[in-house]
Each structure stands twice: as structure tokens, then as C-alpha cells.
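Hi Prof. W.,

I finally got the Class I SAM-dependent methyltransferase prediction working! I wasn't sure whether to trim anything, so I left the full sequence exactly as given:
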Amino acid sequence: MTDAAADIIDLYRRHAGAWIAMRGTRLTEGVWLDRFVGLMRPEASVLDIGCGAGVPIARHLAGEGLRVTGVDASDEMITCFRVNLPDQTAQLADMRSLKLGRTFDGLIAWDSFFHLTPDDQRGMFAIFRSHAEPGAPLLFTSGPAFGEAMGTLEGDPLYHSSLDPEEYRELLDRHEFDVVGHVAEDPDCTGHTVWLARRRFAE
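And this is what came out:
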């Protein structure tokens, strides 16, 4: 599956239009997004990691009065994000080497982080911490158990992987995040496995 993992960025570049049409505008993540928003002050800054075209998640967050910065490694997705949310910020970047030089009041990596290999996922937790203000919530999706899985997008293989839940907890704790909520294969969120954590305040 190594080749499929390495092809993720090009896959989303080649099939950006198809993915956007398939994703649609229906928001099924509302309960978790509401919890995420509830942990921040009004007009807080949010970093959307793997933002795609910005619809519906970034648009929903902006509609809640938050200031969204979207990052994605597909320039086609970033172009669409800028069209869909012209008042927000978008930047072309690979999450694995993200260094924006600033921190945010909240971070989200919904249906993006889980396309990375297990080793790349482990490396992301230092990146999450370096971009998170104390008290910032972190919302991301994963698989329910350790392993790799393949889907398809327009007939091409679509790579996913997950760490074991206990390793996610250990990585969050090591990087100064406390778990606020976690549901494996949430029936109220189209079967997503969801993590909501929060960076600790300085003691």
C-alpha cells in the first residue's frame, strides 16, 4: 500500500472535481463541530488541516463567526476553497511539513489525517502542538483500530491508515493534549471514528 499512500496528493489533484461533487454540501458532522466550536471564544482562529474545497466544514465554521485558515496539498482544492470562502485564508501546504509560524485557537483534521501512513501520523502530533494555543481544541478522524485500508476514488486506490486507539491517547498525552471526547464508528456521524482533544493550559 506504500505506493497508494504516496499517491494521495496527486489523487486529490487529479480527481478534485469528482471528490467535491461526491462530498456535496450536506453537513453530517454537526454534533462534533458544535462541541469543537463550543470550546473556543467568539471569532477564534481555526486551522483546517486538509481543508479540501472548504465545503461544508470550513464554511460552517466561518458561519459560526470563526476565522478559518485552510491548508491543503492539492492546489486544485485550494483554488476551490478560495472561491467558496473568499473572506477566509487558504494556503497550499503538505501537512506533514507544516510550519506556519503561528498558533491557532482550534485545529481540525477531518477526513484528511487518516490518509497518512502510521509513521507520518505519529509525526503529526508535534505539528498539532506547535500550531495550537493553550486550551485549543483538536478535532480529527481516524480508523477504529490499527491497520491500513483501501478505498477507491474514480477507480483509483485511496489509502487510509489508523493507529491503535491507545497509541492515539499516548501521543495526545505526550504532546500536551487531553482527550475530551472519543467515539469509535459513531452511528450519529455516518460511522466516523472521532477524536476531540484539547491542549493543556500552562500550569
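The chain has a mean pLDDT of 96. Does that look reasonable to you?

Thanks,
D.
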